[in-house]
Amino acid sequence: MMYVSRVFAIFMMLATASMGHAVYHENYFQGVNYLQTVEVSLNSFTSMQSLRRIKANGADTVALIVFMHQDAADSIEIKHSTAVTDKQLIQAIADAHDIGLRVILKPQVLVNNSWAGEIKPSSQTAWQQWFESYQSLLQHYAQIAQQHEVAMLVIGTELRHAAIQPQFRQLIIAVRKIYMGELSYAAHGTAGLKNFPHWDLLDSVSLTLYPSLGNEWDIENIKLLMAKKMIELRSISSTIDKPLWIAEIGISSAQDSFREPWLVKERQQSTPDTERQAKVLELWLQSLRQPWIQGVLIWSWSSNAEQDGMNNTGFDIQNKPAEKLVSCYWKKEC
């Protein structure tokens, strides 16, 4: 009975938000995770136009994504990816600042045939070697963040196994010596949020949020699942006593993506459904209108502002119904 009452309380909060009485953290920020495409580099005029459109839509923050590369989940070496060069990154930071966007730098690790959450070297010696490699690259980005006045540096994203290692504390301390701005870590879902043991060394708490929204397209059930997730998120975050923000929330514009919203390549052959993408984002933005949530960043927006939106199944929101919907929330008009 107590659990039902708590779910009902969350629904009442969501209903209030949907009626236009929005509730936001006093230092609330909103924006996107910004990705460079093969066709449009971050230091191009076209990318600048893409950033301007984000701003015009009502965003105040952009997280610039740079990638590091790892050959396998048990590798001990992380390589600097040339997908985004330092020159491109530095120009994107300057462009975003020029138009008044707050900049977050969010380096992420790509793993061949796997993902960052599966990184797990085979021994403690191997872990130490991995951390030495990761720390070297992260310190490099910390220097860029410090020199170019980036507001926040995210020191890792979805590193399920690496994040619980004792070496992670030394990593945070080492980065603190270089970068004086705000530090955060993007945990993998509520489980990652709960299991991360180093929040005391960071300035804010963040997570990526891609839970399953059921097996059937049922709006009421999706609302219920989101309400339960808000209860869980509030319960965990209240024990940490740090500002909480959502580093990634999103869904691809594929017809059945609500079942497993985290999937990327597997969705490329699915039937496009941009209306469902917009609806799911609307429901999430309603759910996340909470005074204890400091910010929300959508995944994702690309440097190519003119790319085809209606016929692809990617996570990007530009040129899709989701762009108009998200803009409505950013401008506090929904």
Task: Write a structural description.
With 334 residues, the chain is α/β, with parallel strands linked by helices. It has one domain: TIM Barrel (Alpha-Beta Barrel), CATH 3.20.20. The chain has helices at residues 2-18, 45-56, 86-98, 124-147, 167-176, 189-195, 219-237, 274-287, 321-330; strands spanning 29-35, 61-70, 79-80, 102-111, 152-157, 182-188, 204-209, 244-249, 293-302. It has an 8-stranded parallel beta barrel, surrounded by 6 helices. Helix 1 packs across helix 7, helix 4 runs parallel beside helix 5 (167-176) and helix 8 (274-287) packs parallel to helix 9. The longest helix has 24 residues, at 124-147. The two termini are 33 Å apart.
Offer a quick outline of the entry.
The chain is of the alpha/beta class and 334 residues long. 38% of the residues lie in helices and 19% in strands.
